[in-house]
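Please fill in the sequence for the structure shown.

STRUCTURE ENCODING:
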């Protein structure tokens, strides 16, 4: 039974009735156009029959074939590509296998099915739930990208196709990674690979690692790895070496120090003092207008007392060479 038409509906700027008339008229004209395209293909085959070997047209004949088809296309006013595609399509669909009511475009898409019997059977079997073949249905059948993706996999394929440009891919990736629900659905091993790719830049990796190690659980798990722990220890030693070099390059007393007997202990001690002063100069200004709680003040006073005791100990060692500490000082330095 013909589909019931409700004129209350519209398609674009026309009524449903007028749209149905347009479709019927265009189908007739396209059927005629399809016959013409097959006619072009048949004639092109007559001029240059297919010369296939192992499923592919023999390469040694391609140049002469192209010359003939190009001349034919010029003489009838069509592009070479149009004539060539029509010839290949006609070669796959003998006249008694062409299906009336199925467009030339669908025949052309299904022509990629290599096996003859499978190809002929496919066009006679309508897609499930459909009343006719469409180009998208044909593309689905042969595994090609469709114009209007429906399934998740088709949408994924469409996104990959659109994101072949690196700039587009980068923008899409940045946008998707800002969506927590999207990230939550990514498998753990894929997340690891993504993070590894995004942190190939050393500056980015350092910034991310610093942030992650501020999370106690993350730091604990990371330090449970022997290699990671070794690398952190190595980094601390390296930082100390760099701090010493920085002191020698920037401190105003560095030239005087260079003239002294620079034992390792002396340099380490000077470097430690220099690093402490630099750290205090960086951190203390940030305390402006901040009110610490009672517990916080107690902790800070205890630490300041330890620092003062340490400075006294250093001065004694420098002036007298004595480095022994009494019981009270030892307890204070140990935070007891």
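FILLED IN BY: designer on duty
SEQUENCE:
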């Amino acid at each position: 039974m013909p589909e019931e038409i409700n004129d209350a509906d519209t398609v674009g700027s026309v009524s449903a009735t007028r749209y149905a008339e347009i479709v019927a008229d265009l189908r007739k004209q396209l059927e005629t156009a399809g016959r013409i395209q097959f006619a072009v293909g048949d004639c092109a085959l007559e001029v240059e029959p297919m010369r296939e070997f192992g499923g592919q047209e023999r390469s040694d004949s391609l140049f002469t074939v192209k010359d003939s088809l190009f001349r034919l296309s010029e003489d009838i006013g069509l592009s070479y590509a149009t004539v060539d595609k029509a010839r290949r399509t006609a070669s796959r669909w003998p006249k008694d296998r062409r299906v009336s009511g199925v467009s030339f475009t669908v025949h052309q898409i299904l022509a990629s099915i290599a096996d003859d019997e499978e190809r002929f059977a496919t066009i006679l079997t309508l897609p499930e739930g459909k009343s006719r073949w469409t180009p998208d249905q044909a593309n689905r059948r042969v595994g090609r990208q469709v114009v209007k993706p429906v399934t998740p996999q088709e949408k994924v394929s469409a996104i990959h196709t659109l994101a072949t440009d690196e700039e587009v891919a980068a923008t899409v990736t940045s946008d998707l990674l800002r969506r927590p629900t999207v990230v939550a659905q990514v498998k753990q091993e894929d997340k690891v690979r993504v993070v590894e790719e995004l942190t190939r830049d050393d500056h980015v990796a350092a910034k991310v690692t610093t942030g992650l190690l501020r999370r106690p659980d993350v730091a604990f798990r990371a330090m449970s790895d022997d290699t990671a722990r070794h690398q952190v220890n190595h980094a601390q030693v390296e930082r100390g070496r760099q701090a010493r070099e920085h002191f020698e390059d920037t401190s105003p007393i560095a030239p005087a120090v260079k003239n002294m007997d620079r034992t390792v202990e002396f340099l380490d001690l000077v470097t430690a003092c220099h690093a402490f002063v630099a750290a205090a100069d960086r951190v203390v200004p940030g305390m402006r207008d901040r009110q610490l709680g009672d517990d916080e003040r107690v902790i800070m006073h205890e630490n300041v007392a330890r620092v003062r005791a340490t400075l006294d100990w250093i001065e004694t060692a420098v002036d007298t060479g004595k480095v022994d500490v009494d019981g009270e000082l030892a307890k204070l330095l140990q935070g007891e």
